[in-house]
Write a structure and sequence with these properties.
Layout: H1 17-21, H2 53-65, H3 71-88
């Protein structure tokens, strides 16, 4: 099996039906290309918590200042990752 790297594959190919048949026909504005599955509608949970905008703004400010990532946060994240990897063995 061949594994592709993250930059080797392009996104989905879209084209008109004439393009897929290899004909140089002008594009049909009513042809949207291959059909795409309907995206499921996101349902809002009745008990969904509101976005805490003051927290979002504080974190954005810390990121912009370069103070969001601390050595303690990195160590805690690495400890959690190591715990998860050890559990999977």
């Amino acid at each position: 099996m061949h594994e592709h790297g993250p930059d080797e594959l392009g996104g989905p190919v879209r084209g008109t039906s004439a393009w897929w048949r290899g004909m140089g026909a002008p594009t049909d504005p009513t042809d949207d290309g291959p059909p795409t599955p309907e995206e499921p509608r996101r349902r809002r949970k009745k008990d969904a918590k509101p976005i805490r905008m003051e927290l979002v703004e504080r974190i954005r400010k810390e990121i912009a200042e370069g103070t969001y990532d601390t050595q303690e946060k990195w160590e805690a994240a690495l400890d959690r990752l190591l715990d998860r990897l050890e559990r999977e063995d």
